[in-house]
Amino acid sequence: SDPENGFIVVTQVGSQTFGIVVDGVFHTEEIVVKPMSTKLRHIDMFSGNTILGDGAVIMIIDPNGIAKALGAAGSSAHGMGDEAAGHHIGSGEQTTSLLVFRAGSSQPKAVPLGLVTRLEELPADKIEFSNGRYMVQYREQLMPLVAMEGVTIASQGAQPILVFADDGRSMGLVVDEIIDIVEERLNIEVGGSSSGILGSAVIKGQATEVIDVGHFLPMAFADWFTRKEMKPSLHSQSVLLVDDSAFFRNMLAPVLKAAGYRVRTAPTAQEGLAALRAQSFDVILTDIEMPDMNGFEFAEVVRSDNNLAATPIIGLSALVSPAAIERGRQAGFHDYVAKFDRPGLIAALKEQTAGAAGASELSRAAAA
Q1: Spatial contact of 241 and 249, defined as CB atoms under 8 Å apart
Q2: What is the pTM of this model?
Q3: Which of 209, 221, 236, 352 could form a disulfide with 232, with the two C-beta atoms 3.0–4.6 Å apart?
Q4: What CATH number was assigned to the domain covering residues 228-367?
Q5: Orientation angle between helical segments 322-331 and 72-91, nearest 10 degrees
Q6: Any signal peptide, and if so, which residues (predicted)?
Q7: Under CATH, domain 7-70 is a member of which superfamily?
Q8: Where are the domains of the chain?
Q9: What is the dihedral of CA 164, 166, 168, 174, to 10 degrees?
Q10: Dihedral, 201, 207, 212, 215 alpha carbons, nearest 10
Q11: What tens digit of pLDDT does each residue of 334-350 get?
């Protein structure tokens, strides 16, 4: 292949990161993985196969098999990584995968990668203008495009798009250039002064604007956060969200409200305890890495209070390792979810509040 125009798929297995050199990248596609033929199961590099929409049969690469092929050094590095992960949890070290891009100016901007469904470069001639707005036919649906301030939609060539999707609907955020994906400690030091910007943080040594995704989603679909079936009812479950980061509180609260929960936020563990003693909640979501009192210590205090001990606690962290999960279990967590795993968080909430919802229904039925 052409060494000047090749591609490297950066893959992570546990704490081990390596690159897979490929000739080209076509697109992303949702598939159903079929088991390997018995005659091929001895090949560790592949985990199965699938049939594409055009009838072609392709093999599915197994990153674990490739990691295994790298040898014992990779295995020992993985063990060291788990130990380091436990240390980072204890020391409050927290990094976030961030997508860095430019839009409307030379100033770099960033968004947590976990919020982005796909990165696309769409042919400009595929972008259409209808009903007063730009849109594109994307995965058999019309996807509205929202351009950030100062961004002009390309008339030729390729147009970079950040795709955000939820509940079967997608929107594309039009940007000028996708720069990089980085792992950084996200600390918004200066609050945002314009709409759509949460604030500025130092990312890879440069002041970078962190965008507020929640500002742009309703610009594509006005009811993104307020669809009728998602509106909280009078009997919806209540959630206490404890997180010292204003960024994560601002990001998660609308997601939880859109899923039908009543949400109260607290910026510190101490304020979270005060809220718990002032009113009852169906479930507690707490960050792990917090100053003064971390999430583990917060959970232990809650568990030691007879009036609060029965309330389910879900831990949130950007770093989920076996050591951290075990530490959370000892502290009294009912579940442990990665901060940017939105489907996993909603699933965990539904599981932990199912019992409370059933009890509420029984109480209302008895009262009737």
Answers
A1: yes
A2: 0.55
A3: 236
A4: 3.40.50.2300
A5: 40
A6: none
A7: SH3 Domains (2.30.30.40)
A8: 7-70, 96-220, 228-367
A9: -20
A10: 150
A11: 998 887 777 788 888 98
